[in-house]
Amino acid sequence: MIAKPHLYLIFPNIFDFKGGIQVYSKFLLKALQDIYPEADYDVFLKYDKYSLKQPDKLQFLSSTRFHYFGDLPKLVQPILFATKIIILAILQHPVIVISTHVNYAIVCYILKFLTGIPYWVVAHGLEVWDIENKATKFALEKADKIISVSNYTRQRLLQNTNINSEKIVILPNTFDASKFPINSKPTYLLKRYNLTDEQPVILTVTRLGSMAKYKGYDQILHALVKVRLYLPNVHFILAGKGDDIPRIKALVTNLNLQDCVTIAGFVPDKELCDHYNLCDVFALPSKGEGFGIVFLEALACGKPVLAGNQDGSIDPLADGKLGCLVDPDNVEEIADNLIQILQGDCSNRLIYQPKYLQQKTIEAFDFSQFRASLAKLVSGN
Question: CA-to-CA distance for 255 and 249, rounded, in angstroms?
């Protein structure tokens, strides 16, 4: 890149909602600003609202120009969002446009067609595995570079698109390792959930939306029926928010699991690490993860992790070296492995070495590693 580049970044949102794409977008912006502190940054946020105070803005350069579109009426929002990006880019001519969601690739392509400005697109998970919209697929294929967050997503892209393999590079999800130390079970959470220090605890932290059943929390609930036969005092904490909670509560009642399940709701960032340290195994047997930042956080806290073997979850678990991979559709297999992990009988003995899990996770995925890898990508642009 040139000495003082001007970068355009297109994000769904980074302030009003915390999901995998949002977290990745935040880290991407922070890393770019560490690499190019003198650059100009225009950040377009489709769903964030200008009307809401954004204390998180303090972590970014004060000169960063954020453009908010979340306050606009839904009928005109997409049009004004795309129009402002294109008009401003024609006037300012940034050196590159980076989108962290494939849905904005069309705007990027139109801009490149009009001005020649190159664009990159970040590919996460489900949204790029089987793209049905032909225009979106075409725009993705025309991107100058595609950043895949996992090897699994890269392979899916190569199977289902006409993208040159050399254009798809891997820049995995990252996390702030300093926020996830190994600690004993927090007393205040033991009291809150009415647990004892010796009680085996299974934890899941995820979105609990009606469109997120692929996360596998239903399978854990069904597996609990068998798990509690071997571990009668086992307790499952399901943390997260979403519109699927009423159905989940009904399922808990139908399975007669009320006394061993807590639906904890949303866990604020200040309590997240404590929840990981509270558990004896973190379980998310999903089949739709592009990667799964929660796995990094749990591993950094030194916890055994159980994940699905059919999606991007295999990347943070180093193909199973750092955890237990299971068939996410097989309730019996999930139950058996949870029992083995909690009884100390898992064949992968590394999952019982907290400091090893933490060290390997930090070496591969800490923010400093993410920033160094990104610096290589942008310097080669």
Answer: 10
Q: Which of 53-57, 130-134, 146-150, 292-296 has the lowest mean pLDDT?
A: 53-57
CB 237, CB 257: distance < 8 Å = no
Rounded to whole angstroms, the maximal C-alpha distance in the chain is: 67
What phi and psi values does residue 247 have, to the nearest 5 degrees? -70, -40
Judge whether 126 and 212 are in contact, CB under 8 Å.
no
Q: Residue 334: exposed, middle, or buried by beta-carbon count in 10 A (0-12, 13-18, 19+)?
A: buried
**HSE of 249 in the Cβ direction (CA atoms, 13 Å)?**
9
Let me know: does 244 contact 164? Beta carbons within 8 Å. no
With a threshold of 0.85, does the pTM exceed it? yes
Give the distance, in angstroms, between the CA of residue 290 and the centroid of all CA atoms in the same chain.
Answer: 7
Q: Which domains are seen in the chain, by residue range? A: 6-174+366-379 (3.40.50.2000), 177-364 (3.40.50.2000)
DSSP symbols for 132-187: --HHHHHHHHT-SEEEESSHHHHHHHHHHS---GGGEEE----B-GGG----PPPH
Which pLDDT score, from 0 to 100, does residue 381 have? 54
CA distances from 341 to 106, 209, 299, 344, 357 (A): 46, 28, 14, 5, 15
